[in-house]
C-alpha cells in the first residue's frame, strides 16, 4: 500500500428556490497517456477508482469528502496479463483477465470486496494457445450478475462464453460464423440479458441500391440451449440512418430504435422503433413515424417550408419505460476536418499537412413511444457545444435516471472555465433547465459521458485537464 499526501477538498453549495446541490472536488491525480481508468462506484462509505497500466492495476479509494483514503495494487496469477474487463457491483467488483503460460491460455476472474481484498478467484476457461487469436472483450447484464466474454476473428468467426458471476460457472459456450460481407460497413451490436442469453444484431444491405433487401440478422444463444438461433428482421424497403438496440429485462423484449430514410442516406426522414418478444421473435412489431412539423422547425430554428430530411443526427441512448415503451434520445453532431499548412496542433496526414478536427454537439431531442410503437410525446433540449482536436470527450451529456424523472447534465461550453447545466424531464416530457455549477477557477474539465450514477440523486464525474484527473461528486 502506498502512502500519499492528503487531498485538499473543494466543496460548493448551490441553492435557489427550486434546486440545491452539493459539489465536491477531489485533489488532482497525475495520469499518463497510457493510463486507462474507470470509476467503479460507491461501496459503503468509499468511492473506488480503477487505474490500469501495462501489467499493473491499482485501486484508489476516496471518502465522502473525496479525500483519498488508500491506494492498493492488485496481484494476478501471472506477471504478464491482459485485462479483459471490469464488472462493478453494489458491494464488490470483479476483474476478468487473460494470460499465457506453457503453451496454454487462461481466462480467469478475481472478485474483490469494497476494501479491494480478493474474496474469490476462478479459471473460466483453459485451452491450448494458438497464433493470431484476437483479444477478448466483454459485456455484462443489467443486473451485473452475468457476463458475456467474446472474440471476433477474421471478421466472421465468433467465440462466446456466458458466465454466471454468482454461481461461478459457465452457462454456455459456443463458436459460430456470421456473414462477413461488408463487415466494417454494417452495424454490429452485442447484448446479454439477466439470464445470460446473448443477442448479436447485424445489419445487412443497408445501401441505396439494396433498399428492398435491407434487413437485420438477430443471432441468439443461451435461450435453453447452446444452439444458435437466427432471425431475420426485414426493414420494409427503408434504410437505417442510425440504430441502437437494448434488452428490456422487465418485459423480456429485445427493443431497438433509430432513424430511417428512403432516398438520401445523409438525411433522416423519421424514426422507427422495434419490439421483438423473447417468447416468439416472429411476433415482432416494427413501427415507422415521420417527424412532427413543429419538432423540425424548432430543431432547425427556422420555419421549414420543404422538409428534405434531418442531417447530422445520431441516436445516443434508449431509455426503457416500465410499461414496455421507451424514449429514443437523438443528438445533432457534426465533425469537420480542416487542413492547415502551418505547424501546430492536429493530425499529420500522408501529404504532410496538419489536420484539425472540429466537433459540434448540439441539440438533443427525445421521442417517447408507447409499447405498441405509437408516438407519445417529443421534446427538444437546446444546447450548443464546440471543441477542437479532443475526440469530443467533453461533449454530449450524461443521464441521471430516477423512477419519476431524468436529469441531463452537460457542459455549456467546452473550455476550462464554463458552467454546467441540466435539463430535468418528467414522464410526460415537460422540463426545467437549471444551472448546476460553475467551473471558474476550479481547474476542472468534465467528461460527462464517462460519469457514473452512484445513487438516485448522486453522480461522480471524471475531470481531465493537462494529464491531471479529478473526481467531482454532485449530490442533488
Written description of the protein model:
The chain has 476 residues and is mostly beta strands. Among the domains are: 111 residues, no CATH class; 137 residues, no CATH class. Helix content is 2%, strand content 56%. The protein is built from one helix and 36 strands. Strands 1, 2, 3, 34, 35 and 36 form a six-stranded antiparallel β-sheet that branches. Strands 24, 25, 26, 27, 28 and 29 form a six-stranded antiparallel β-sheet that branches. Strands 4-5-6-7 form a four-stranded antiparallel β-sheet, with no helix packed on it. A hairpin with a 7-residue loop joins β22 and β23. The longest helix is centred in the middle third of the chain and has 8 residues. The protein is globular. The N terminus is likely disordered.
Amino acid at each position: 500500500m502506498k502512502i500519499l499526501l492528503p487531498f485538499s477538498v473543494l466543496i460548493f453549495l448551490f441553492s435557489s428556490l427550486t434546486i440545491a446541490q452539493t459539489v465536491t472536488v477531489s485533489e488532482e491525480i497525475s495520469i499518463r497517456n497510457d493510463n486507462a481508468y474507470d470509476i467503479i462506484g460507491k461501496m459503503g462509505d468509499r468511492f473506488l477508482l480503477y487505474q490500469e497500466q501495462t501489467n499493473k492495476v491499482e485501486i484508489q479509494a476516496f471518502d465522502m469528502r473525496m479525500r483519498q483514503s488508500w491506494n492498493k495494487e492488485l496481484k494476478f496469477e501471472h506477471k504478464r496479463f491482459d485485462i479483459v474487463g471490469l464488472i462493478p457491483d453494489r458491494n464488490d467488483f470483479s476483474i476478468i483477465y487473460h494470460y499465457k503460460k506453457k503453451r496454454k491460455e487462461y481466462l480467469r476472474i478475481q472478485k474483490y470486496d469494497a476494501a479491494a481484498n480478493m474474496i474469490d478467484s476462478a479459471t473460466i476457461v483453459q485451452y491450448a494457445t494458438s497464433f493470431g487469436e484476437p483479444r477478448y472483450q466483454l459485456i455484462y447484464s443489467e443486473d451485473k450478475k452475468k457476463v458475456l466474454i467474446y472474440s471476433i476473428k477474421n471478421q466472421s468467426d465468433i467465440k462466446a462464453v456466458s458466465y454466471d458471476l454468482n454461481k461461478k460457472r459457465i452457462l454456455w459456450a459456443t463458436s459460430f460464423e456470421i456473414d462477413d460481407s461488408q463487415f466494417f460497413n454494417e452495424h454490429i451490436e452485442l447484448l446479454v440479458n439477466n439470464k445470460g442469453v446473448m443477442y448479436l444484431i447485424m445489419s445487412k444491405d443497408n445501401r441505396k441500391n439494396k433498399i428492398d433487401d435491407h434487413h437485420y440478422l438477430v443471432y441468439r444463444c443461451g435461450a435453453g440451449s447452446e444452439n444458435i438461433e437466427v432471425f431475420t428482421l426485414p426493414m420494409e424497403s427503408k434504410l437505417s440512418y442510425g440504430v441502437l438496440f437494448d434488452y428490456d429485462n422487465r418485459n423480456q423484449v429485445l427493443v431497438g430504435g433509430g432513424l430511417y430514410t428512403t432516398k438520401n442516406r445523409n438525411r433522416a426522414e423519421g424514426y422507427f422503433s422495434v419490439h421483438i418478444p423473447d417468447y416468439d421473435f416472429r411476433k415482432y412489431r416494427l413501427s415507422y413515424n415521420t417527424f412532427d412539423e413543429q419538432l423540425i422547425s424548432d430543431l432547425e430554428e427556422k420555419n421549414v417550408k420543404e422538409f428534405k430530411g434531418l442531417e447530422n443526427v445520431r441516436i445516443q441512448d434508449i431509455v426503457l419505460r416500465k410499461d414496455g415503451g421507451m424514449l429514443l434520445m437523438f443528438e445533432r453532431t457534426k465533425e469537420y476536418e480542416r487542413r492547415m499548412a502551418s505547424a501546430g496542433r492536429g493530425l499529420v496526414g500522408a501529404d504532410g499537412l496538419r489536420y484539425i478536427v472540429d466537433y459540434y454537439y448540439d441539440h438533443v431531442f427525445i421521442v417517447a413511444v408507447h409499447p405498441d410503437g405509437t408516438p407519445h410525446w417529443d421534446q427538444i433540449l437546446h444546447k450548443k457545444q464546440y471543441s477542437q482536436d479532443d475526440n469530443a470527450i467533453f461533449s454530449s451529456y450524461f443521464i441521471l435516471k430516477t423512477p419519476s424523472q431524468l436529469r441531463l447534465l452537460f457542459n455549456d461550453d467546452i473550455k476550462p472555465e464554463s458552467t454546467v447545466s441540466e435539463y430535468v424531464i418528467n414522464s410526460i416530457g415537460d422540463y426545467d433547465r437549471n444551472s448546476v455549477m460553475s467551473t471558474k477557477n476550479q481547474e476542472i474539465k468534465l467528461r460527462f459521458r464517462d460519469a457514473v450514477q452512484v445513487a438516485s440523486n448522486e453522480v461522480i464525474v471524471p475531470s481531465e485537464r493537462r494529464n491531471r484527473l479529478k473526481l467531482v461528486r454532485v449530490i442533488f
